[in-house]
Every structure is written in C-alpha cells, then in structure tokens.
Amino acid sequence: MTTRAHKRPLRPMMASFVRFVVCGGGVGLASSGVLVLLHDRMPLAVANALVTVVSTLIATELHGRVSFRSERGGWGVHLQSGLTVLVSYAFTTGALLGLYAVQSAPSVLTEQAVYLSASALAGIGRFAVLRLVVFAERPVPAEPSLSKAAVAIAA
Hints:
Layout: H1 2-38, H2 44-67, H3 75-102, H4 108-134, H5 148-154
Helix pairs in contact: 1-2, 2-3, 3-4
C-alpha cells in the first residue's frame, strides 16, 4: 500500500513532463522551419531573435495551458519563462565553450553530443522551474472570518 501512495504523485508529474516535451519539441520543430523560411528574407541573427521571442511566447502559453494545466497567465509568467530560456541558452553556450576550451576542433558528433546533453539538462531544469515556480498552484488566501467573540464585541 505504501508503494501505491508514492506512485500516484509521480504519474501526474510524468504526464506533465511528457506534455512539456511534446509541446516544447513541437514549437522547436516549427521554429526551425520558420527560421529556414525567414533566412533569405532577413539577416539570420534578426530572424533567429524574432523566432526565439515568438516561439518563447507560444511555448509559454502551451506549457501553461497544456503541460501544467495552469490558470496563471500574463506578462509576469512570460517574463519568468523568458528568464528560464536565457539561463538555458547560457548553460548550453557554456557547455560548448567548455568543450572548445578542452578540444579546439571537436568532431561534429562530439559537439552535438555535448550540445544535446546540455540542452536535455537545461530542459529538465526549465521544466522544474516552470512547474515549481512559474506555473505552481498558488494557495488561495483564506477569507477572513469573524469569531463569535468578535461579533459579540462589535455588536
């Protein structure tokens, strides 16, 4: 009976993680396609910045509504989510810079292994922050109630 009690809280979290991966992966694939379409129309850095901002907004909405099934929304949520994207970017960039510091000319396979591993770790960290901080359920403040003594004194 004890093992069952421990399994139940993990199921919603795992389902949320699977939805997070599907939503994030879907937005990532769509972003990649849009980047290819924009590549000839504007400088790559501008296209990448535009795609990153728009895809982060879309992914945040999807994560809130689908991944975490949260009622939270607004610009504060987008700002917090955007900060997790910046931290993830710094983490993956740092991993690649670390690789180049150790190996000046790594193979494409090594480079991709480092990048994908760092991306996976950043994604897990991002999931945790979004689930525990950004889209965490907030306790509803209790309604102030008057005790019988307070009512008697007020009367």
